[in-house]
Amino acid sequence: MWTHPAWPVHDGLRSYADWCNAVEGNTTFYATPAASTVASWARQTSPDFRFLLKLPKTITHERRLSDVAGLVRSFLDTIEPLGARAHALWVQLPASFGPPDLGALAAFLRRMPREYRTAVEVRHPAFFAEPGRLERVLGDAGAEWVLFDTTVLFDAAPNSPAEEEAWQKKPRLPRRSQALGAHPVVRYIGRDDDARTVEGWHHWLDTVVGWLREGRSPTVFVHTPDNAHALVLARRFHDEVRARLPQLEPLPTGPLTLW
Question: What are 2-25's pLDDT values in tens digits?
Fold first, then answer.
């Protein structure tokens, strides 16, 4: 998302891009946007802004990556105005997509144009119990394994309606923090208590600093169940990384104060 009633972002994506340099493109899961909409996204962002765009559910959930060449081509044609801003195509797979489906994933990734980076999010527990086969499929294709961390969310009973809803909707899976390539992707889900969210991200602080020192270029998204403070928390995480690596580029500084 790039808007929230609690955020000091009053001009949609343009304002958001004054504060952060990447966004999860979740709306593309539900429908391929109009070409004019994508062109507008390009006009509102700098050339180095990162969109991680979720492939439409017709590709990932309904057809489960099979017989989708036309749908993929149509999607890629639509997002072409973004150019390099299309940092990664986010292949979020349903929880029912398990090890027996790896052949479909491998075939799909082989057919993807190599000018597009792919990041795959899996939710089947078997992949976490025995990750080797999936790692090989992703590694052979140069794809990343999206690191979706909900361990802090689930480490104590929910304390708010938003946390209760997140407990019902988010997957409860082991934390994984191994990068496969040069562009790892982290989705960290904290709590509505900011202090608990910050306390819980120390693992990722250490991990991201290590990746940067290795020459990798990670993208990190910080969420909370209600996302009210997600924008300021994301900037705080970046600031904490930069405190250890002063050579890291600062985030944009928009015309508004956060609070």
Answer: 888 888 777 889 999 989 999 999
